């Protein structure tokens, strides 16, 4: 250990001076340490392992340090501020090397305490500090750039706090060592007293260091936020938010790490508002559970790696230093070919074929000779083609391996590419000794090398295709389930299934070439594929269960897959995740979920595709270095699974295959596969299937009932006895220029502790945090903080005589006046105003007392007048809140709020008990949560479409991606978009549910077919009716009746415009009046039409024309102008001819007149 320390003293001392560098704001030194972070960490971990053997009690801290650092190093990108904190963690661990001077952990100090006893508790504490810091950094790193920036002060304060903890831990270790080595407690205390002063300043200096480490982009964005009035002001203003996003350099999609939104400004605003409202400390606590799981898996992975390395190092050493190949057959090939450190991958595979072909020939010849000479003597074990250098542990003693010459049929040029990919793990085109060993040793127990190669030659492709078929079936089943989920989950479920993650899954499936079904004709290969899948899935399930199916970043993903290529695991991973997601989707049909449940699902899939993109980028670099066509060559790698996503992924609904995919021959789903409920299941069967689902698989408890409302008094109960006059409940309002503030009535619960005030508050919207101070002169400073970061500082004075807190002071350049009184929140609405009190004190007090008492008595008796008033207030509050929210969010359909409406809503916010108002507000928001959203903006009113979506199939691009979108209020409008020019007579599709890309792929063509057919039928019917007009007879009457189309809801004849169902087999007609009222079909109607079916509008009977775009309109105008020019030229020519003819006539007349006069 001493020799190691001496040899690596430079690196260790560098890490050990980090705290001093931070305290001195030595940015250059810190950045140098950041640059060498990985190398220094490796040295420290190696040295600490050795130290742990000498003093096992340090093991708990050393292991925590190793796990956190190892997980951190696996990240492709890191943050300088996080690394600066981890460097302080390194600094802490360096002091443990002082233990190298003490040989015996049981050695007792001057006070009779052993070193082990003195240090063990401290090591446990340090391990907890390291793990908590690792989890906090994990949360911070997963946030988007803007999410980090808008709360940078809070995050950096917490990170600086961990640095202080490490500095304090280092001080404690130093103190313990000085006491133990008998340097004197007094001397140690004296020195540590000086360090205390140093520690008081370290947190502030770390925050100053963070400013030095700010990137230019961080400084620019933070300056912009400050200039615009803070983070909340920036997020609330769409124009400012758009500018902020541009300055951040992030795309709207990248701002959401879970990729669960629509990648638009609305999703970004929602996400950032949630970030502002999130309590950072709560976020750290929530993440600890997942982080602990990661640490556990990381620990197991490290232990397995040590075990594997130890076994095979022993194997190599026992075989001689020159024999680095561990498998006997590979060793023979390597020697025979005279290869050195590496070989071209193609040559390697061809050599395998030649080697085994020759070996089987030799065996067959030897057997034939033996049989001809001595009957049927068994072949010599020395001539077995499958004798491994590493013994096969699954074979019983004396048993012979199965003859696997069948596998040789798959080692040929036709299967060259998958074999190359399996062996050449880094994709360089060369196989190294390390890769050859890893490939050979990674085979399942009991498998020969030849069968292992055969599996990768043909079996892996069959396995991928097996998963591909089942993933398609899962996606199809999930798409059906989106129509069944509870209304409270519909937005989240639709957003998940329409999001980028599921789009990428479908693109991967479409991009991957399937294996031929005849692969399963080979029973031996089939057994291998089944056995491999079963073994791998068991491992995968155990790892995913350990992480609760949450893959929050690629470092976590690598805990599941290890360092191997993602294409080996992407299909089974996606299959297992989607199986869990399918079960969660079934639970969504029974329970209402927490808003982030589906986001976790999207985030896990997004993490997989982040790894896919990293792999694609690596392949791109390799192909470009050899001047290859990247797109073309990606078609050869992993059966083309990366090809379609290369070069950027765009929505492609027209080619979406979720609905149209048919199971491939040989890969059909098992009959017992559980993908119910199906569309033809009855209600009882459906309930039975859904009842089997276990809610414990959810990340959050179901929210089947409103939560959060009426919890204020539970969280902040009134004191049993007031220890101070200021203790207890208060009710009041914040006023701006004497007018009621939007926050309405506020209830406070205060507790005085010395000169500090603690407690909580609530208003109509949420629970608020409260802190403050009070002095002996009754000066009170109360800070009220909203969850979104907004805060008000109320400075005033407590008046013991009136028992009020009154003042006028504020923040953000707004002047708030306020008075908090002892009036109960339920009676606050009856409280007299200052003007009423000044006019007649007795009348004001009596009026207040009478009204409050009557209300209290009516409440206790549940009298009808009281209930009627309460119901009316609830209804008005909910309706007005919904309307205001719809207007603020720019949703459709909307009704603008008049000044009367705004006044009425504010009056309710001021009058209602905050707990009641909170409950009503949650009901209003929940009702909006149940409305279907589409992720589209109306091209006429520019509001976000909800409830009903109309889109034009004549103003639509070839990929069904971009089109003219309209809300129900703008049906008759004719907007333009890009090159599209919408006309009212165009064919529109109308839907009351979100149409996913899988459905859109067939709905658009089907809508065109239905519209064309119905338009022709209407034209034919009109022609027939006109021919039959005036004619009599039963035959003519039947023809007239058949020609008339009836509405399925009212039974009356329909006339243009009307709607036709796209889903129903028989054309089902709905008149405009019934559609507006959303009436159901008549009971005696044979059609199975429902409101969930999409409709196509028949505006008139004219055939569908080509879409009129701006370009085509200009071309048409240009053609008309050219035609007009031609006509003008012809007219000019005609006039010229007429004028010439007239001149000739006049000339003749003149000549005649001249002749006559002469």
From TrEMBL:
It comes from the Eukaryota. This is EF-hand domain-containing protein. The lineage of its organism: Eukaryota, Fungi, Dikarya, Basidiomycota, Agaricomycotina.
